[in-house]
């Protein structure tokens, strides 16, 4: 499943990185502690977090995530949007909680 379909199914708002929505999602990782995400997430994951500062982009680039979903309606900082755009990392936003977002993604990836 690619990010475009995931965004449609979960009604996600695309903040930036629309050119990268064709990326295939192989899994996901939910976490707000950057060191935990760096240690445990994988290439091809979509990262689900409530963090909105620009350091999330650096971690996503390092781990080769397909994109970042901000939960609870969190709006990314302007610096974050600028950095994500520069690095080609799609940023998406949902009003859903992290728990509900992860559950829905899991069900879509494992029907």
What does this structure look like?
The chain has helices spanning 3-10, 34-40, 55-63, 78-87, 98-109, and strands at 13-16, 27-30, 45-49, 67-70, 91-93. By secondary structure, it is an alpha/beta fold. It has one domain (3-109): Udp-n-acetylmuramoylalanyl-d-glutamate--2,6- Diaminopimelate Ligase, Chain: A, domain 1. A five-stranded mixed sheet has the order 1-5-4-3-2, sandwiched between helices. Strand 4, helix 4 and strand 5 form a beta-alpha-beta unit. It is globular, with a radius of gyration of 12 Å. The model has no long low-confidence stretch (mean pLDDT 97).
- Taking all residues together, what is the mean pLDDT? 97
Structurally, the number of domains stands at 1
What spatial order of strands do you see in the largest sheet?
Answer: 1-5-4-3-2
pLDDT < 50 stretches: none
Strand content: 15-25%
Largest beta-sheet details: 5 strands, mixed
CATH class: Alpha Beta
Order of helices and strands: HEEHEHEHEH
> Do you know the CATH architecture?
3-Layer(aba) Sandwich
Ends distance: 12 Å
Task: Please report the number of helical segments.
Answer: 5
CATH fold-type name: Udp-n-acetylmuramoylalanyl-d-glutamate--2,6- Diaminopimelate Ligase, Chain: A, domain 1
By CATH's scheme, which homologous superfamily applies? HprK N-terminal domain-like
Instruction: Quickly give the structural class.
Output: alpha/beta
Question: What share of residues is helical?
Answer: 40-55%
């Amino acid at each position: 499943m690619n990010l475009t379909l995931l965004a449609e199914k979960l009604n996600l708002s695309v903040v930036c990185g629309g050119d990268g929505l064709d990326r295939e999602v192989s899994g996901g990782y939910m976490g707000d502690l950057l060191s935990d995400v760096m240690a445990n997430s994988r290439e091809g994951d979509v990262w689900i977090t409530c963090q909105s500062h620009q350091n999330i982009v650096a971690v996503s680039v390092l781990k080769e995530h397909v994109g970042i979903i901000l939960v609870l309606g969190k709006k990314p900082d302007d610096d974050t949007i600028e950095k994500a755009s520069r690095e080609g990392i799609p940023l998406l936003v949902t009003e859903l909680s992290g728990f509900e977002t992860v559950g829905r993604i899991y069900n879509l990836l494992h029907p």
